[in-house]
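Q: For a teaching session next week I want to show students how multiple molecules come together into a single three-dimensional assembly. I've collected the sequence lines for a complex. Could you give me the predicted structure tokens for the whole thing so I can convert them for display?
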Amino acid sequence: MKTKQFLILVTFVALFAGCATAPSTELISARSAYQQASEGPAGQLAPAELHKAHEALVLAEESFKKDPDSYKTKDLAYVAQRKSENAGALGAMAVDKASKDKANADFQKKQTELVKQGKQDLIDSEKQGKQDLSDSEKRTAAAQAELDKRAAVQATKDKADADFQRQQAAVQANKDKADADFQKKQTEIVQQGKQDLIDSEKRTAEALTALAAIAAVKEEERGLVVTLSGSVLFRSGKSALLSSAQVKLDQVANALLSVRARNLIVEGHTDSQGSESYNQGLSQRRAEAVRDYLVQRGYPSDRIQARGKGEGNPIADNASPEGRANNRRVEIIIERMQTSNQ
Amino acid sequence: MRHISKIRIMVLAVAVVAIAIAAGCKSAPLRTEASTSGIRAAEEVGAAKVPQASLHLQLAREELELAKGLDAKGEKDQAASMLLRAEADAELAIALSHGDAERLEAEKAMAQVRQLRKDNP
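A: Of course. Below is the structure for the complete assembly, covering every listed component.
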């Protein structure tokens, strides 16, 4: 609106100027300055100052109309120019102020965003920190549990080692005791064996003495042989023991029972009269009869055998009656004592 | 007698007023307060440190001195007119000083924003 008024004024003045004096440099500058100011931001941002500039310019123009060359016209034009420049400066300042306000607002906004983001980051960081702390605590707890577990394992191992040591010591002690007992027992057994052997030998000697008094006793490679005459024990051609023979056998049995630890072989022998098979059977039956009697008297059955030898092992000539009588016999072979502790 | 006395008083009053008017017209002092205060204000806002404002401050000072010189010569109208120039230049110096400060502050604020955005993309 002011620009329009100004243009009308300028046109009006120009029409006048055509038939009047040319305007001064000050007035031309004032017009230009006002135009520049009115076209700038001052129109909107510094309207009061621009209005003052307009009034100053109007005064200058009026003065110019009255007295174009006067100092007053020049001074008024100068003042109008300065007021126009002042309006322009204030307009520019308003623009700068708006820019500053906008920048400050942007700064505040950005700062607020940063603070907000910072808070959020802080919250996230605290959250992450808590999570990290929780994880760390879990790891620490796990590590502690592992340490406790290892300590427990170590304690168990130590206890097991200690138990093992104790057990080993106990085993060793038991072993030592067992060895000592074994040594002692072995010594006792040896002593007992020796004593048994001595006793056995003594009993054997006594038995031999007793047997020698009732029968022929002979030391042979197969053992001690006690020979009983067949005529004393059996009737001719019979295998049943005579009652008188039982008395004899009782004496023999008593002697043998003192050495019952020995194995006995009862062998039956005949003369050469009669068939060989008959003699074989007869000798077998007679040997068994003697064996059975000895068993009956208490000699262990598993330590006594009966063997019929028939006429095959004569000890005398079968041609003479005495020889045949000697060949009819029962031999009780007392085997040699085996080397043992029994 | 009493009537004559009133006339004398009235004549005396008219004479006193006329003398006063005549004396006032002849010795009215130059009103430099506006221009002087304008120059002082321009100085206080730092116009001397702003190149363009400094120019107008200097012009205002010179115009004030010219006005005083004209006044001293009895060119009172011209002196008063010159004071208008001084006032206008002082006023412009103030506006330019403020404008420069405002511009610097705006540039600083925008630089801050740019830096902030650069530092925090």
